[in-house]
Amino acid sequence: MTCTGIDLVRWAKLIGVAGIALHMTLAALGNVVDYDSNWAFVQHVLSMDTTFKSPALMGRAITDPTLQTAAYLAIIAAEMAGAALLWSGFVVLWRARTANADGFHAAKGLALFALMWCFAIWTIGFIAIGGEWFAMWQSETWNGQSGATRFATVTGIVMVFLAIRE
User: Fold this and answer.
1) Tens digit of pLDDT for each residue in 87-99?
2) Which of 1, 29, 40, 162 is 20 to 30 Å from 46 at the Cα level?
3) For residue 159, which of 2, 21, 46 has the smallest C-alpha distance?
4) Are 41 and 34 in contact (CB under 8 A)?
């Protein structure tokens, strides 16, 4: 099935990559533009001040503002890198949109790497480290696991969908 000479499955893959790229761009931009709101989120998660405060876990807490700032800047940098990688991968795919199946498949590398990068931000950074290591799941106020799971799921679906050969 085609639409103006481009397979609709390819359009879906292009839109999926562009959608995740837009999301990562807005996530990074939000952290820069609304630095203080998201800074508070990072501080509370790392300090574990709204968790159950189990003595067995509180040794993991990071309360040093310098280390908290470094972590927050690392998150912003990772999101910016993810956005840049995704947009670059989208451009490569766009240029290959009319190629044969092998040509289009060969053009997927950067976009797949970028999707994997962003998937890792959500699954490793927010779900595993934030959610489990810093017990974010215990906080009623500063719990981003639901959002991270949603972002990881959508990113993972696009990653798998893009990886499928025609």
Assistant:
1) 999 999 999 999 9
2) 29
3) 21
4) no
Task: Kindly give the interhelix angle for 8-33 and 109-120, rounded to the nearest 10 degrees.
Answer: 40
Residue type, 37: S
The C-alpha atoms of residue 21 and residue 103 are separated, in whole angstroms, by 22
CA dihedral 69, 71, 75, 78 (to 10 degrees): 110
- Cβ distance 144 to 123 under 8 Å? no
Q: Which of 158, 166, 49 is nearest to 114 (CA)?
A: 158
Written as six digits, the tokens of 166 are 């025609």
Task: Report pLDDT digits (tens) over 9-33.
Answer: 999 999 999 999 999 999 999 999 9
What's the alpha-carbon Rg for the chain, to the nearest Å?
19
Measured in residues, the chain has a length of 166
Contact between 148 and 131 under an 8 Å Cβ cutoff? The reply is: yes
Q: Enter the tokens of residue 96.
A: 């290959």
